[in-house]
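fwd from M.: "can u put these together and see what the complex looks like"

so here's what she sent:
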Amino acid sequence: MNELSASSRITYRAVMVRPGAARRIRGLSDRTLAWLFITPTIVLLLAINIFPLLWTIYLSFTNYRANRANVPTIWLGADWYQSILTDPDIWAAMQVTAHFVIWTVVIETVLGFGLAYLIDKKFRGHGMWTTIILLPMMLSPAVVGNFWTFLYQPQIGLFNYVIAFFTGREASSFQMLGDVTLSPWAIVIVDAWMWTPYVMLICLAGLRSIPDYLYEAAEVDRASKWRQFWSITLPMALPFIMLAVLFRGIENFKMFDMVNLLTGGGPGSTTEVASITLKRAAFESWRTGYSSAFAIILFVTVFGLANIYVKALNKVKSR
Amino acid sequence: MKRTMKTFVVACGAVAAAFGVGAGTTSAQAQGKTITLCWAAWDPANALVELSKDFTAKSGIGMKFEFVPWTNYADRFLNELNSHGSLCDLIIGDSQWIGGAAENGQYVKLNDFFKKEGISMDDYMPATVVGYSEWPKNTPNYWALPAMGDAVGWTYRKDWFARPEVQKDFKAKYGRDIGVPKTLDELKDIAQFFQGRDIDGKKVYGASIYTERGSEGITMGVSNYLYDYGFKYDDPKKPYAMDGFVNSAGAVKGLEAYKELYKCCTPPGASNSYMSEGLDAFKSGQVALQMNFFAFFPGLYKDPNVGGDKIGFFVNPAGPAGQATQLGGQGISVVSYSKNQAEALQYIKWFSGGDVQKKWWALGGYSCAKSVLNDPSFPTSAPFAKEFLQSMGMVVDFWAEPSYAQLLQAEQKRVHDYVVADKGTAQEALDGLVKDWKAIFKEEGKKF
């Protein structure tokens, strides 16, 4: 015993003194252990995810207002749902959202895949270029919103000067954020600038996962590069592209911070995406019941579309 | 070393207070209680920090400050009140909040306290009492002490107006001397005259006006035109009856006139401007005229580039139906969820003192006390004092109903859609506004 080190003595005593406890722990089944480990996560999930969701569903059927907690809550049934689904302003906001989602996803996918395809070809300095391309997505949307507001400034903004340089128009003759026609595109441009690298990254992973032997076999069969692209590259990368589309689609459907900072939904309601309408109803007008119903509608829409999409994605993957 | 440490602690406190994180405790205050005052982050708030040092010195109660930029001010503090938060012991809340805060029990009713301490609302300018303290309006139910009088006014580049070539060109074009506009038409002429003009080799623009969409900007701006053209919130004889008042022929013309001013005479990119954008445009020498709240005028007057002799001030000019201006400003209230109500009330009592009110004005705050405003020397005490006094005599405020935020959002949308986004006509915008407001009041259970 004397020649044992201090730590060994402690271990020895622990084993000797509490054999029963050790046996009890050893006696736990795998299932019990699994429950032991996941219980904290489940409790957290229930507390901060499931309960608020159920509570929101309940509130969406009431007249509850968070700023008037002392007013009796009345059950309204599906009144809010009916009023939201027949409100032209809501449909206008959904159209703005659809425009934003569709165009950003299309542009980001095309550019992202294009960039990934280029980066995938090994060339000198491609690592440095990859890092540079990825920079925008590492920035906070709040920062991006703020500095693009300056870039779009008609008198001092770099964006207007670049356009003026190429078109010959006066830089202050157009305003990206204050013009009804241009502002929806202004937010699309910023989102595409920020998130194309993200799509590129996912596509790059897809391209790198294609085994070289497929191309080697195609070379043996004398398939042209064009044929290789359509028959090997695109189909093999498609699940990744679809995944990127899913992520960006869901994310942009909920887009708030960047649009809020760039235009605040304006001019008028031209860029008022659904999440801005929701925020105004919930935290400016304090129509908690109404905004809960709207939030549920948005959730169901995203969830439903995402489910249909995932099924399509699984089909593509299983091919 | 001790002195260095003390300086360091005070400096840290000042920096923290300036960033709105609230910290400014000194060794004297640490022994007693500390109360938190919530307000917007702007020039008068800095003056209040300075003023409040006297309170701490006198009472031993420390002061912490929570200042939030105007664009987030309502969101932040209404959230705080609605969640029954006790962050703020005292709040300088916007005038329109008073209905909601009173009815939802968020502010402490001050009638008994005023009576006990001998504070009389007769000692304050009537418009500020109605605007900042009373709910329901025009009844002796007080929820705040008028703290910061404010209204929308205008600034102009006096030095540009004084240039011989400007005077000559203006007279040639409009057949009259250039000077402070007395009517909104004259104001538009001046703005149009300067739009795109070359001043010292730099292209300048006519006017900076409020066009902000997100919070309350465009409503605070357009109201100055609507009131002068005959807009009324409702029938004076029949509350909440809005048809023919909100959307009267005069109001429609007023809205059209505001849009004309926006289209003809504002700098490029001014589609989302509010207080800070107006200040930037004026301070950078971009515009000849600026619409803004009086609260900013002391700071503008001190500005090294555009202040002093270069700046002039005037009240909102008259329109075809009269002359009025949008009320700004706030009262100071005790938050009912505060755990330091006694100390907060002590602050209000101290703040209502005659000498304190005088110092408040001297530091850059706008006192609402008659003892300050009716003093014969007041009109000459600052270059904008006379205009402030005149403006406070003709202020009109937005709805102060509990549903004010909804009412405000409806106007923001309708007006911005018409003025900035060119959607529909002025008549359609105001008809739509009546429809929206009726729906909101109906939801509130109002009869009209």
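replying to her w this: The interface with chain B takes residues 66-70, 152-155, 157, 172-173, 175, 177-180, 260, 263-270, 280, 283-287 of chain A (CB under 8 Å).
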